C-alpha cells in the first residue's frame, strides 16, 4: 500500500531529525501522559525506555541529559493541549510538528561522539518514529483503534497504533493474500511483547489480528480444507507466541454446497484448531453479503457456535458496516437497541468480544460490503453515537477499517502531484477521537449537528454513486430472474429437464460467491 504523503513527509522529517535527536519523540508523548490509570506505569516506563533507547541500534549519539528532559516536558505539555474534536486534533498536530521543529533548531549541543551510520531504516521504522498524529487518550472506557499495517513485522503494528492515538488495534499476522506460512521471526515475537508492554497494550484484550481473506474453513473439499486449515492454525499459533488472545476471521462460504454441511465443516475445523492450540479465542465476523456467505445472519453465527465444543474458545467480532448492509439496522438508538437485543437473543451477548467500526457506503440491507468513514455513510453519526454510548461495548476492542483516502469537504478524492490518490492516516487519528468524544455528547447539541452535517456532506458523492450501482444491480437481478422463470416454464412445456447453468451464469455466480470484500473500495490491507 502506498504511504500517505503526509505521513511520508512526517517520516522524512523525523529521519532528518533523528540525526540530531536520539530518542523517538512519539514515545515521549505517549508515555508522559499526564493523567489516568495507566499514567503511573507509563512514567516508570519512560526511564526504562530512555535507557533502552540509548542502547538501541537506532541510537546515534549520546547527548546531555538536561536537553532530553526539557524536550519531554515540552512534549507532555503539547499532549495536554490535544483536543478531541477533529478540527482541533489537526491543529494540535500542527502544534506538535512545530514544537518538534523548534526543538530541532534549539538543540545546539554538539555530539559528543562521532556520528555512526547504521543500517538504513525501513519506511515503517521511519514512520513509527514520527511524532504521533494524535496522542492516545488515557483512561477512556472505550478502547478504539484501527487495523494498522504490520509491514516489517508485528512489532511495527504497535508503533503504527501509537502513531494514530489508538488504544486497540488489528493487524495481519502474515501476508493476507498469500498461502505461504513463513515461520514467525523470534525477534519479532520478543519485540512485540516488549512494545506492547512498554506502551500498555493488553494483548489479551485489545489486539485482534485479522485472518487471511483466502481462508475458507467452510469449504468441504479435502485439499482446500488442508490449505485453509494449515494457514488458519498457523495464525492461531502466531497469536499464542505473540501473547494475543483474540483472533478474528471470516466464517467462509458454502460455495453453493449444502449450508448445514458447510457450517458443520467450519465448526469441525475450529474444534480441531482449538485442540491444537491452548487459549486463543476464535472470533467469527458477521458478514454483509448473504447468499452462500456464512455469517450474514446472527442465526449462522449461532449455528456455528452451537457446534463448537469449547465455547470459551469462540466468540463474535461484530462489524457495524456488515451488520447494517446485511439487514441489521443501526441508524438510531432504537434500532441499535433492537439489533443488540436480536444479537443477544440469537447468539448471546457473552460472545460479543470485539467490534469493527465502519460506516457503510452502501444502503441498508444492500448486502454490499463497502466501508465508509464514520458519519459519512448510510449508517451515519447518530448510529455510532448510540453504539459508543451502549454499555455493552465498554472494554471491548473496537477497530476502524475505514478508508484513508483524502477527500475535500464535498467528498471529492484528492490527488497528489503524481496523480495518485492521497492517503492520510490522520483520518484514523481523528476518527478515534471523534468516536471517543461521542460518549456523553448530546445529539441535539450544535456541536453534534455540525459534525453530523459536515460528514454527511462529505460522504454524499460516494453514497449516491453506490446507491445507483445497487439499484442497477437489483433491477438486473430481477430481470434475470424473470427471464429464467420464463425459460423454465417454456422447458417444462416441452421436456421436464432442469435448466442447466450456462457458462456465463455460472461464472457470475462464482464471482458473487467469492469474498465480498473484493467489492470493497478499500486499500488492499484494510478491508473487512
Ligand atoms: Zn470487518
From TrEMBL:
Residues 159-414 form the Xylose isomerase-like TIM barrel domain. GO terms for biological process: base-excision repair. Keywords: DNA damage, DNA repair, Endonuclease, Hydrolase, Metal-binding, Nuclease, Zinc. Pfam families: AP_endonuc_2. Residues 1-107, 475-528 are annotated as: Disordered. Residues 1-25, 514-528 have a biased composition (Low complexity). InterPro entries: AP_endonuc_2, AP_endonuc_F2_Zn_BS, Xyl_isomerase-like_sf, Xyl_isomerase-like_TIM-brl. Its cofactor is Zn(2+). The keyword DNA damage applies. The keyword Signal does not apply. Signal peptide: none annotated. One of its GO terms (molecular function) is DNA binding. Belongs to the AP endonuclease 2 family. This is Apurinic-apyrimidinic endonuclease 1. It comes from Aureobasidium pullulans (Black yeast). The lineage of its organism: Eukaryota, Fungi, Dikarya, Ascomycota, Pezizomycotina.
